[in-house]
Write a structure and sequence with these properties.
- By secondary structure, this protein is of the alpha/beta class.
- The chain has a domain of 206 residues: Vaccinia Virus protein VP39 (Rossmann fold).
- The chain contains ten helices and eleven strands.
- The strands form two sheets. A nine-stranded mixed sheet has the order 3-4-5-2-1-6-7-11-10, sandwiched between helices.
- Helix 7 crosses helix 9 and helix 9 packs antiparallel against helix 10.
- The longest helix is centred in the last third of the chain and has 20 residues.
- Bound molecules: S-adenosylmethionine (SAM).
- The site of S-adenosylmethionine has 21 residues, from helix 3 and strand 2.
Length: 296
């Protein structure tokens, strides 16, 4: 999976407010409710990037917390460390650092964080029985292959982990629409699912695969619901990022033999609309919570 260019720090920080606005409140409430009686919650966040999921979720849990942030890209993890320290100080926590650990403390609430550089594929090795109660992953699972996600589901199940996964890509639509949108968006989605060294990423098929995977297992509850980015005409920087992703991916597909007839004109129409602040984009994702049958 690419971990450098596409997911660079500025992109992850750009998308943060869209992710926050998109998160599905019912899915989130189900997760918080499940842990409401726990005096302490232990969470492992996989594909942590620059720590966005921690920053968003840690405030939602009123209790003390223990976190592990697993991220493959050491540069993103380094940025996460700095970002978390700044966040904690701004929120009035006392901040202590010890190697790859951060400890935040504020009026009886303790948050311990371990920063782990490594692959989420090594999770079975990283997990001690009973060490964590919840696994979280935001904007990660659509990057995985069927085999990877299927193995992870088994690992989560085996370790009796509840799962909260958010912002899994499903579809996108421009407004105003263009007769050519369908064709290029389909090719963009085909690019997400192209053959890569690890196989094909699930892309838009991720949430169905996840839901079907858990349907085979005994669970106390599962809940899937949409989380939608609404990118408004004035959100020019976010639109710019999206158009860059589209352009790069579509050009890669045309270089692999797909017809590029009409692509330049389509991209130019979008750029003109962007400059005139006439472009709206809705990107549909889904959020998913499941809890093991053993507790709750
Ligand atoms: C779209 S980003 C999301 C980051 C973060 N969860 C957020 O919401 O901002 C996907 C992240 O998954 C990480 N990633 C990709 N493959 C990984 C792997 N095998 N193990 C751990 N992290 C991985 C990437 O480096 C990237 O930081």
């Amino acid at each position: 999976m690419p971990t450098d260019t596409q997911f660079a720090t500025d992109w992850l920080e750009e998308r943060y407010r869209f992710d926050v606005a998109a998160r599905n409140p019912k899915v989130e409430a189900a997760c918080l409710q499940y842990f409401a009686q726990h005096p302490m919650v232990s969470i492992i966040d996989i594909g942590a990037g620059t720590g966005a999921n921690f920053i968003y979720l840690s405030e939602k849990f009123p209790q003390s917390q223990q976190w592990a942030l697993v991220e493959l890209n050491p540069n993103l993890l380094k940025r996460a460390r700095e970002r978390l320290k700044i966040w904690a100080a701004a929120k009035g926590y006392t901040v202590r650092e010890n190697g790859q650990r951060l400890d935040f403390q504020r009026s009886g609430q303790h948050i311990h964080i371990q920063l782990l550089q490594g692959s989420l594929l090594e999770l079975p090795r990283l997990l001690q029985p009973g060490q964590y109660q919840l696994v979280t992953a935001s904007a990660v699972f659509d990057l995985l292959s069927k085999q990877m996600l299927s193995d992870l589901i088994q690992t989560f199940h085996h370790n009796r982990l509840a799962l909260l996964t958010t912002l899994n890509y499903e579809s996108m639509a421009y407004l105003p629409g263009d007769a050519e949108d369908k064709r290029w968006i389909e090719l963009y989605e085909a690019h997400m699912q192209r053959e890569q060294d690890f196989g094909r990423a699930l892309g838009p098929g991720c949430s169905d695969f996840l839901e079907n995977g858990y349907a085979q297992l005994p669970t106390a509850q599962t809940l899937r619901a949409p989380s939608r980015w609404q990118i408004e005409p004035a959100d020019t920087s976010m639109h710019g990022h999206m158009l860059q992703f589209l352009e790069k991916s579509l050009l890669e597909m045309t270089s692999m033999g797909h017809s590029g007839k009409g692509l330049d004109a389509w991209l130019q129409r979008k750029k003109t609309q962007l400059q005139a602040q006439q472009l709206r984009l809705s990107v549909v994702h889904s959020d998913f919570f499941t809890a093991p049958v053993y507790e709750g």
